[in-house]
Design goal:
The protein is of the alpha/beta class. It is built from nine helices and twelve strands. The strands form three sheets. It has a five-stranded parallel beta sheet, sandwiched between helices.
C-alpha cells in the first residue's frame, strides 16, 4: 500500500489524525522535500510521528518511482507531502504509475497554499489560473500571460515563487515584483505579499507592486498576489495589512 499524506504548511502538529495513524502504521516513511518546506526540522517530525523519515528528492519521486512502487507492493509505504497531496502537479504522475502497476493508493488531504491565501481576505473563488515564477525567469513569459488573461477577466492571480529547499534557496517577493515590472506589469497595481502562510509567524503585507520590490519579508517560502476586481469585503480585509 502507498499512502500519500499531506502534512500541512507549518510544523509537525499540522498532520491530521487520520494521516498520523497511517504514518504510525507504515513500514517505511518518506518525506518529499523539494516542492516546499516546513517550519520545523526532520528530527521534530520523527519525534512527533515516532518514525524514522527518509528524505525523497525529485529524482526518486518523479524519475525513479519504480523503487517506491516496488516497495509499496510488499510494505506499507508513506510518502509525506508538505501542504496537500495535489497542491503540486508533480504527484499525479506517481498516482497514475501506481494504478498502472496495480499498487493500492490511499490519499490523505491537508491544508495547502491554495486555500491558505484565504487569510488575506480575498475570495478563493475569485482566483484565476495559478502560475509559478522560476529562478531562471529572464526570458520566461508564461507568468505574464497568465496574469494578463486573469486580469482581463477580473480574477486574482497567485504567483508561486520558486524554491530549492535542499540548497536553502528561496525566491523572494522583491525579486518576483521586479521581474513582473520588468516584463510590463504596471508598478502601481495593488499587490499582496505573503510569507510562510499557515505558520504562527506568517507575514501578509499590502501595497503597490512597486512597493513590493523593497518591502521586507523575513520568512520563507513566499508568494505574491495581484488582485483583480475586488468586492467591498475584500477591500476592507486588505486594509488590515497596509
Amino acid at each position: 500500500m502507498l499512502y500519500l499524506i499531506g502534512i500541512g504548511l507549518n510544523d509537525e502538529k499540522d498532520v491530521s489524525v487520520k494521516g498520523l495513524e497511517l504514518i504510525k502504521k507504515a513500514d517505511v516513511v518518506y518525506l518529499e522535500n523539494y516542492t516546499s518546506t516546513l517550519n520545523c526540522s526532520v528530527s521534530q517530525l520523527e519525534k512527533f510521528y515516532g518514525k524514522k523519515i527518509i528524505l525523497a528528492d525529485r529524482e526518486l519521486v518523479e524519475n525513479d518511482s519504480d523503487k517506491l512502487l516496488k516497495e509499496a507492493k510488499e510494505k506499507n509505504v508513506a510518502l509525506l507531502i508538505i501542504g496537500d497531496v495535489f497542491a503540486a502537479t508533480t504527484h499525479i504522475g506517481l498516482i497514475i504509475d501506481a494504478q498502472t502497476k496495480k499498487v493500492k493508493v490511499e490519499i490523505v488531504h491537508n491544508a495547502s497554499i491554495l486555500n491558505a491565501v484565504g487569510e488575506t481576505g480575498l475570495f478563493l473563488y475569485q482566483f484565476g489560473k495559478i502560475t509559478s515564477i522560476p529562478f531562471e525567469c529572464a526570458n520566461v513569459k508564461v507568468p505574464i500571460d497568465v496574469f494578463n488573461n486573469n486580469y482581463k477577466l477580473g480574477y486574482h492571480t497567485l504567483f508561486l515563487l520558486d524554491l530549492k529547499p535542499k540548497e536553502n534557496k528561496f525566491m523572494s517577493i522583491n525579486e518576483a515584483a521586479k521581474y513582473l515590472i520588468k516584463h510590463g506589469i504596471t508598478g502601481s497595481l495593488l499587490a499582496v505579499g505573503c510569507a510562510r502562510l499557515g505558520g504562527k509567524d506568517q507575514e501578509i503585507k499590502v501595497g503597490s507592486l512597486k512597493e513590493m520590490t523593497s518591502l521586507k519579508f523575513s520568512k520563507y517560502p513566499q508568494c505574491l498576489i495581484i488582485p483583480g476586481e475586488l468586492h467591498f469585503i475584500e477591500e476592507d480585509s486588505l486594509r488590515r495589512f497596509k
